[in-house]
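#data-curation
PF: Archiving a pair of folding outputs for the training set. Convention for this channel: one message per protein, sequence first, structure tokens after, nothing in between. First:
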Amino acid sequence: MCELCIKHGEGKKWYEVMKNYSKELYSQNNVEQFMKDFFLNFHKEFNGIIKLDAAKRKRSIVYGFIRKMATSHMKKNHFGQIIPLEDAEMIIDMMQSITRVPCICRGLTRGEKNARYCFAIGVDPSPSDILGDYPHLKENLETLTRDEAKKLLRKFDQEGLIHSIWTFKTPFIGGICNCDRDCLAYRIQVTADLMQIMFKGEYVAEIDLDQCVGCRSCQKLCQFGAIEFSSSNLKCYINPMKCYGCGVCRSACNKEAITLNDRNQLPELAGVW
């Protein structure tokens, strides 16, 4: 089980525990103020990441220390985990409040102000001042029913977008994101390998070689480079060390050759999150 499951899961996956979405936890940890500060300082945090990248490129002796401290800070405050579609839908079924909001990452990296790929869950941002000085976020909020949210999740899954949950003062879970390579978390952790800002999912994908026809459609969809093609037998394989367990590759496979297995059942992945 991942670190968050051990600390906050009560014997289950930590995001299956209703307490981690509760109003009591929201109030107890002063999450509303944290969210206000988070959105207010988002550009500053982005500039800090640019400086961290520069330190890594220069092979600064302080980079390793900064990486360790930054990862520890994120785990306490704003951390994520990859989840497959079915777990995202399960979370939606637990929620009373679901609000579709524009993606702040895409707004920063692409300049797209109305790229509404994120869900605020358990928190209604509309009556509060959580979104601070981002009027375009406030103007494009949309309250969703559970069915509407799940329909969107399935659409995003077909588009190859990765589902993830995010904390605002861990362990309070306040958001589901549906990410592509413009996601800042993806850029920070996967592209630049600056620090850990999210855990891999609780699963790892596996391809049934008897069903695989070697079309490589799944490989094109994988954002983590975890799917490899063998020229000897013309089949695709999952590299479990690279797999994040998002399950998005399944939507590309017409032969239904890909399944998700419990990561904890693979000894070689112990501690690999």
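PF: Second:
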Amino acid sequence: MAAQRLPQRLPLGHRANNKILMLTNAERGEANVFLATCHALLEADPGLELHFATFDGLQQTVAQVSDNVRRAVPHAKPIVFHQIKGPTMTESIMQHLARNCIPRKADGSPESWMTPLRFFSSLRAIRDTIPIIVPYRGSQLVDIISYIAAIIEEVAADLVVVDSLMTPGLTACYHLGIKFTCLSPNNIKMFAGPAQPWLASLWKWPALFSGYPYPVPLHLIPFNLCLIIYMVIIWRRDAHRRQATDYLLAQIGAHLFTPIDLARRRLPDLKILVSTHSELDFPLVHPPHVYPCGPIVRAAPAIADADPELLTWLARGPTVYINLGSFFSVDQDQALELAQALKIALDTLDKKPGADHVQVLWKLKLCKDPCVGNGVFPILDTLSRQFEDGRIRIVEWVQAEPISILQSGHIACSVHHGGANSYNEAVIAGVPQVVLPQWSDCYDYAELVQVLGIGRLGSKTTKPRWTAPELSHELLAVLDGEPARAMTHKAQQLASLCEKRGSGAAKAARILLEELSNEPEVLMEKTSVNGG
């Protein structure tokens, strides 16, 4: 798309009534909260004209959400899909890593993310995280922002709802001076740093990729400060970010605006809607511009409808559900460690008189390594007795959605990677958690389950990797004994709180519909953004 300078404000007469544009990355961790909110918006206001803009790959899913709503509310308008041309965030990050010869795993993620966390490995992981915040080169940013601007002008919505991690979307909205709100799958803490007294976010909260516990122990505070200072320095000096910033300004006159700027130089009246409640987050001072909606999770068919055969199997006994997310691939060594941890835990439980026979449902995505044969065979050997008893299922795909499995009433423990959606789904279902954090904010959720007393960190001494002895110990802590019963009780209390307050998606929809009545002149006085 040819580069051209963008206007710094769209004319107010260019807006229509009862029209919202949802603008998000295509990655499911972010897109799912938008899909859930779309469903709730059309249920709340069937006359709303709803547009959904993202990259290639979500057309079918958006159409499915639209069809599902219209089956329940026949007079609801269909969602209008707009494709943003260009690589997705994940595709662009992979291109950046390859172009800069950054060592990668077989699944494409940086090796530094998978290296056991020590001070210097944390520095490398922080350095390799810059592409998540600015995933595109300058020329790509210009094209994508121009496409987004064209969609914004074509739709002429009353309100644009932007993914808080979508740098091109944030940049376009800030530059055009349009009325917008941010929607995030993450917690309050992500946006609350500047609001904390005594600069607590610098010394009390663990730095990115530090893996430190919360609150940061006294002897680790100097290291925590060093990591934060390094993060600021590497961000300011990063050649990739500077090139993208300069190119964008020179070509279309726009200043780069990133997720970091939502805390550093947020517009005064910008609202940020987050997928949590205060009770599900760290203790902190809550900034007034951050609106906790409660967990925003996509509605899904009950498991009895989606996969009745799986429900029958789950009903045989309490089940450990392992799902490390759609992005993360497990290498053969780590898969075998996990299998050995399961064997130790299950053998220990089987020796207890009168104990239930615990089952395992494991959604396993192995790294595709041409140098390694079929990595499933060692796992089958390790768990041969449990396989013979029909107590373990290892699958690449499950027909039922994770939330449907978790709400089946048969899940004793959810083992996941620490993603926001995985955490929220387990909270809603009242299921204790064992977290195996893999990157960035995953470490937050690993700490959070311990702070709230609803789970354990399964790899405390070797994170992000895990070992069979430590992981089996943490699994047993969640599955058996008085601590396990206390965790289950607290998890069920939080689930009851979420149920009492209602759907997070429905609350997000109510806030967005209320925003439609606000005057654009009041919300958007500032029409340009100073670079920094």
